[in-house]
Specification:
This protein is mainly α and 492 residues long. It has helices at 4-14, 18-30, 39-51, 55-64, 67-70, 74-86, 90-101, 109-124, 128-136, 161-168, 172-189, 201-213, 220-231, 235-246, 264-276, 280-289, 300-312, 316-328, 336-349, 353-362, 381-386, 388-400, 404-409, 412-415, 442-455, 469-482, 487-490, and strands spanning 420-423, 435-438. A two-stranded antiparallel ribbon has the order 1-2.
């Protein structure tokens, strides 16, 4: 449960205090003993703080919020990433480029020029993915510099939009017939050391596609094309090459009969580059490498960091593993079960059966409609006007199947963790136990937000305006009798 200082920050943020919103965003970025690390929640509060004029908020967004989260709110966040990239924040420049290229691409000339300038600075700073984005952001009339194909006049640039169309149309054989000669000419002109090749994004993509189309051949030519594509920044080629070097498949399992020994050092290099470009399977594979006893860089901490990055990028197995890891550590900190529920909900939403089963053990579903369900039709406008806190508590009990004591005593604002409610009234009701209730639907989320706003400026402790448990219970029973409630409901 959040401590008193954090509760004050939460209340201030919800009431519109920009400084509190910035501080709450920082707390959710880092996580801690009381509040979980949650990038989506951090983005929500930082965006509100940035809109209220807090410059540090958009700097934090640019530095810490990846494209995978920003892409869902592109129009609202573009300005913050543009400002952060102009301030020299390298991750912001990369994310800005990804946002501009996201379908449908943004053609605003000013933004694209600013993004190119920021990406050029990022390339100088050593950002691997910035070079590929920079090439894609060049104006449509510009052409990537490339090695001339056979029969092409010197200095004439390679253009292959027709090959892109063939690939996307699924014409595998037709694509290979036309693309393979171009790919071979590029490979022939490239340095013998693939890592020294300075090709563009379009060339790297062409080489990777040819390698995939020739994958069954298993020849040295395929390996050469893939190494060049990886050196050119193609994410998929980097992932495949890293898995090959580690002698494992995409699930992290050892290949049944690997040829030769694994080269974990090179595998880590390529998988890290693929992961930095948003390839969740790359981070998952890295977590498996760092746990291998034969890996000289073996590290449980590095493995956990990689599995968390894969989970943040939406990798289902990583989300399941993060959830189960947090659940195993629940005795070391009460908020670990909140983290467990968060990741298991994410994995279950992607169809993970094990995550759904684990979530039901952590937060068992309610049995029956609950005692408050028959009372919901009795919540009149008069009650909401005269006793808004009582009306909100009854509605909360109906939504989340709370017991009567839980409904009357719960500190609603402190209980709300976004994806779940932490029901904990042990301090004032000794026979109760701490439990989690997931927020499963948009309807529940909207209703909970409305109810939390009712309690924003209210002290929910027993010393507050609602009084102690007896006073709250008396107020409830008095209303119930006046509303025509039955004796069975009074004894609930």
């Amino acid at each position: 449960m959040a401590n008193r200082e954090e509760l004050a920050i939460i209340r201030g943020a919800r009431s519109g205090d920009a400084a509190c919103q910035l501080q709450l965003g920082r707390l959710y970025l880092a996580g801690g003993a009381s509040l979980p690390c949650s990038l989506p929640t951090a983005l929500h509060w930082l965006a509100r703080a940035a809109a209220a004029g807090q410059d540090e908020a958009w700097r934090l967004i640019g530095r810490h919020i990846p494209w995978q989260l920003a892409c869902h709110a592109r129009p609202a966040l573009l300005d913050w990433y543009a400002r952060a990239s102009a301030a020299g924040i390298v991750p912001a420049a990369v994310t800005l480029g990804q946002l501009l290229l996201q379908d449908p691409p943004i053609t605003n000339a000013t933004l694209r020029r600013q993004a190119r300038q920021a990406l050029e600075a990022a390339v100088q700073a050593g950002a691997v993915e910035a070079r590929a984005l920079l090439a894609r952001l060049r104006p449509a009339e510009a052409v990537l510099p490339a090695t001339p194909a056979a029969g092409t006049a010197p200095g004439h640039p390679i253009r292959f939009p027709h090959l892109d169309r063939l690939w996307h149309d699924g014409a595998g054989a037709g694509f290979l017939v036309q693309a393979l000669p171009v790919a071979r000419s590029i490979a022939a002109a490239a340095p013998s050391d693939a890592a020294a090749w300075q090709g563009g994004t379009a060339e790297a993509s062409l080489l990777a596609r040819c390698a995939d189309a020739l994958a069954d051949a298993g020849s040295s030519e395929v390996q050469r094309l893939r190494e060049l594509a990886a050196a050119g920044g193609d994410r998929d080629a980097q992932l495949v090459l890293g898995l090959q070097l580690a002698r494992m498949d995409v699930t992290g399992e050892r290949l049944p009969h690997p040829a030769g020994q694994a080269n974990f050092k090179r595998a880590i290099r390529w998988l890290t580059q693929a992961g930095e470009q948003g390839a969740a399977p790359a981070w998952f594979a890295l977590s498996r490498i760092y746990m291998r006893p034969e890996c000289s860089q073996r590290s449980a901490g590095a493995a956990q960091t990689c599995i968390e990055r894969a989970a943040e990028l939406g990798h289902r197995a990583a989300q399941l593993e993060c959830g189960m890891h947090a659940w195993r550590l629940r005795r070391g900190g009460e908020e670990n079960d909140v983290k467990a529920a968060y990741w298991l909900q994410k994995a279950a939403a992607q169809g993970c059966v094990q995550a759904g089963a684990a979530l039901q053990r952590i937060a068992p579903p309610p049995e029956g409609p609950g005692w408050a369900a028959p009372l919901l039709p009795l919540l009149t406008r008069e009650l909401a006007s005269s006793q808004p806190l009582l009306a909100a508590r009854i509605e909360l009990a109906g939504l989340f199947h709370l017991s009567r004591a839980e409904a009357l005593l719960l500190d609603v604002a402190a209980a709300d963790h976004g994806h779940c409610l932490v029901i904990d009234i042990r301090a004032s009701h000794g026979r109760s136990r701490r439990r989690l209730v997931p927020v499963d639907s948009a309807r529940q989320r909207q209703a909970l937000d409305r109810i939390v706003r009712v309690f924003d400026t209210v002290d929910c402790s027993l010393a507050g305006p609602e009084g102690n448990y007896r006073q709250r219970l008396y107020r409830f029973k008095t209303w119930l009798l006046a509303a025509g409630g039955s004796g069975a409901l009074l004894a609930a």
